[in-house]
């Protein structure tokens, strides 16, 4: 039936059945002269003048909406998403945000910038999302409210997308790789690489996906993979991490198609006889508990966490436990933790490869004692001191890159965990440079 016809609207509103509509249409067709269907409805006493006016208003709105959608569809370029991704990368953005009712936006450390142009309409959103996502992805977001997916787009591998419901429909935030950093480009401290020689324990890597965290995980996994003939289990959503080749073998299991959650994948590691387990991200308390359990079963566990810095990562792990389990969690983490790594990528000067600032908190005797006692706040104090026992704060790493001339002070300040501490370190570094001249 015509979606704009009065008969269809009458059926939708429960005023008539389809059989009654057909009967009145037959009356219209057999009349001596053609009459508008609305006139027949009024004559039959089915509608009042007020109800008729209301239905005509709905009919007008639907037709106008259809014309608007058609106009939007005609205005959508052949590949709107490819163009937006290219513009976002040219602008140095970290995230591309597309949402209905707003113009596309680029986000970076300094804020949000909207693309010049009208807001995105329903047809544009449908086309853009259709270039990146499957119906299964859209079903998941309708069911769960939000979902993280990793897809390959327009020659870009492992693009991470947060898909979420909002008031006007479905929106998406696409995370962009900064500088297309490869694991071989990383200059990780020797103390961090030494973690890969451990045969068991837990190594946590903090940060947002695509901002250095994944490159660190890839580097650590590749180092193990090349150093010894072991069986590594890689757990991730989508295909963000690339295991590469080496002496050992890697079994890739994708969360969703192959295993329900990271937790179930981690618990299956002993049955799979995996020597090393790399979990791209611990997404909740169950994943964290499973990672701790796996690290206590003579396996090296490398795990990513969406946290900001070493102190916040340790606190996040312990916050996953409650009540009587807290003392157990403290003891378990103090025993099996090997170190916490946090990495951030900065644009280097003169077109050089991006610089990577690394915070590293190895599990020294002092760190383990603080974890056991529940005094995680004191970890921040350890990090603020001059680097010692392998401990290096993000601020000291940023200051070292600034002192070498690789990065600008403004870029370093954007990524500092404690800007006041970094400001003092930059001033001290600048004084040292001036004194050297």
Task: Describe what this molecule looks like in 3D.
With 437 residues, this protein is α/β, with parallel strands linked by helices. The protein contains 18 helices and 13 strands. The chain has helices spanning 6-12, 18-30, 37-43, 49-75, 80-90, 122-132, 135-144, 190-193, 213-227, 262-267, 285-295, 310-319, 325-336, 365-373, 377-384, 394-403, 409-415, 419-436, and strands at 95-98, 105-108, 111-114, 146-153, 156-166, 169-175, 201-206, 231-236, 249-254, 276-279, 300-305, 337-346, 355-362. The strands form 2 sheets. It has a 7-stranded mixed sheet with strand order 9-8-10-11-7-12-13, sandwiched between helices. A 6-stranded antiparallel sheet has the order 3-2-1-6-5-4, with helices on one face. The radius of gyration is 29 Å and the shape is elongated. The model is unreliable at 70-77 (pLDDT under 50).
Low-confidence stretches: 70-77
Q: What structural category characterises the helix and strand content?
A: alpha/beta
Q: Main β-sheet: number of strands, strand sense, barrel status?
A: 7 strands, mixed
Helix percent band? 40-55%
C-alpha-based Rg, rounded:
29 Å
* Number of helical regions: 18
Order of neighbouring strands in the sheet with most strands: 9-8-10-11-7-12-13
What's the overall geometry? elongated
Describe the structure in brief.
Helices cover 45% and strands 19% of the residues.
């Amino acid at each position: 039936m015509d979606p704009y016809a009065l008969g269809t609207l009458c059926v939708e509103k429960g005023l008539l059945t389809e059989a009654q509509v057909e009967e009145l249409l037959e009356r219209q067709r057999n009349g001596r002269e053609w009459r508008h269907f609305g006139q027949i409805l009024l004559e039959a006493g089915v509608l009042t003048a007020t109800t008729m006016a209301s239905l005509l208003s709905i009919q007008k709105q639907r037709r106008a909406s259809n014309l608007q959608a058609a106009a939007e569809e005609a205005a959508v370029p052949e590949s709107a998403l490819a163009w937006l991704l290219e513009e976002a990368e040219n602008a140095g953005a970290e995230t591309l945000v597309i949402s209905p009712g707003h113009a596309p936006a680029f986000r970076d450390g300094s804020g949000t910038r909207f693309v010049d142009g009208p807001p995105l309409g329903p047809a544009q959103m449908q086309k853009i999302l259709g270039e990146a996502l499957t119906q299964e992805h859209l079903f998941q977001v309708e069911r769960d409210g939000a979902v993280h997916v990793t897809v390959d787009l327009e020659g870009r591998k492992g693009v991470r997308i947060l898909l979420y419901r909002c008031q006007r429909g479905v929106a998406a935030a696409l995370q962009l790789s900064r500088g297309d950093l490869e694991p071989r480009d990383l200059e990780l401290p020797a103390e961090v690489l030494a973690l890969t020689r451990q045969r068991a324990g837990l190594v946590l890597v903090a940060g947002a996906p695509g901002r250095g965290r994944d490159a660190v995980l890839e580097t650590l996994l590749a180092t193990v993979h090349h150093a010894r003939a072991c069986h590594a289990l890689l757990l991730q959503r989508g295909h963000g991490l690339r295991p590469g080749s080496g002496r050992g073998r890697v079994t890739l299991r994708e969360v969703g198609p192959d295993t329900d959650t990271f937790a179930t994948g981690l618990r299956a590691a002993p049955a799979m006889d995996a020597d090393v387990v790399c979990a791209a991200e611990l997404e909740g308390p169950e994943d964290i508990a499973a990672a701790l359990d796996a690290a206590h079963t003579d396996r090296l566990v490398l795990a990513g966490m969406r946290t900001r810095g070493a102190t916040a990562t340790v606190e996040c792990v312990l916050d996953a436990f409650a009540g009587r389990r807290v003392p157990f969690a403290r003891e378990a983490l103090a025993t099996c933790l090997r170190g916490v790594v946090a990495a951030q990528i900065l644009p280097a000067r003169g077109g050089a490869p991006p610089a990577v600032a690394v915070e590293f908190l190895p599990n020294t005797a002092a760190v383990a004692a603080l974890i056991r006692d529940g005094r995680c706040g004191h970890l921040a104090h350890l990090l603020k001191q001059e680097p010692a026992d392998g401990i290096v704060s993000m601020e000291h790493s940023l200051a070292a890159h600034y002192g070498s001339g690789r990065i600008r002070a403004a870029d370093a300040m954007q990524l500092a965990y404690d800007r006041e501490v970094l400001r003092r370190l930059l001033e001290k570094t600048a004084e040292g440079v001036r004194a050297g001249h």
